[in-house]
Write a structure and sequence with these properties.
The structure holds two protein chains of two kinds.
Chain A lengths: L1 H10 L5 E3 L3 H7 L14 H4 L4 E3 L14 E4 L5 E5 L11 H4 L6 E3 L4 H10 L4 E5 L5 E6 L9
Parallel strand pairs in A: 2-3, 5-6
Antiparallel strand pairs in A: 3-4, 6-7
Chain B lengths: L2 E2 L2 H9 L3 E4 L3 H6 L6 E2 L19 E4 L5
Parallel strand pairs in B: 2-3, 2-4
The chains are: A alpha/beta, B alpha/beta.
């Protein structure tokens, strides 16, 4: 919606209008300072860790076992995940064994309720993405406990 | 025609005191916004709500992630 706003401002007589297309999600993902009432509350982006990634063409035999591996496009758009314990024999590719519908959360998701939900559902990892599906990393429930967990 | 700007370019403009406008709703703005940004939800963008902005100086608009 920012392109519409940029055009609208020009129509209103503003001489030099810029559209920061990647927006607040991009700013938060870079860990840059913000202002507001909720900036002290920990969020997913504050604890996100780098995820192991591969492409849909990656042979399953080349995917390390252990942590989930995120299947992404060249532009880091999430396509799915390959969980631990997948049979790593044969010529199968990541695409043939991946879960194409992993649960994702946004960067500004409040951390405490997120970790609580993950524990309730016995989820050890969850992907953090932009609204456009670009991978930012993973949050691990084991390393980020909520106070009442 | 409006130009797009990336994070590096925006930070450079911020050093010069650029006007920044968050287009999201008030609740979302109140919780967290870019340093120095003012809030004008897209649905209310018009001559009245932009009257305190300087039309000659650069202005940057943003929402969540462009979708």
């Amino acid at each position: 919606m920012s392109p519409r706003a940029a055009w609208r401002l020009e129509a209103l007589g503003f001489a030099e209008v810029y559209d920061y297309v990647l927006g607040k999600a991009d700013w938060l993902a870079a860990g840059l300072p913000t202002e507001g009432s909720g900036t002290d509350e920990p969020r997913a982006i504050d604890v996100v860790e780098k995820a192991l990634t591969c492409t849909v063409e990656t042979p399953v035999s080349h995917i390390p076992d252990g942590d989930p591996v995120v299947v992404v496009t060249d532009g880091d758009i999430v396509q799915g995940t390959v969980g631990p314990g997948i049979r790593r024999a044969g010529a199968a590719t990541a695409e043939s064994v991946m879960d194409p519908g992993p649960v994702t959360v946004r960067a500004d998701e409040s951390l405490e309720p997120l970790v609580r939900r993950m524990r309730e559902k016995h989820v050890s990892h969850i992907l953090v993405t932009t609204a456009g599906g670009r991978l930012l990393g993973v949050v691990r429930s084991v390393t980020h406990s909520s106070p009442d967990a | 025609m409006p130009s797009t700007i990336d994070r590096t370019g925006l930070r450079r403009l911020m050093d010069d005191g650029v006007q920044v406008v968050e287009l999201l709703d008030e609740d979302e703005y109140r919780v967290e916004h870019l340093p120095g940004a003012v809030n004008i939800p897209l649905s209310r963008l018009g001559p009245d709500t932009t009257s305190e902005l300087d039309p000659v100086d650069p202005v940057v608009v943003y929402c969540w992630d462009g979708l």
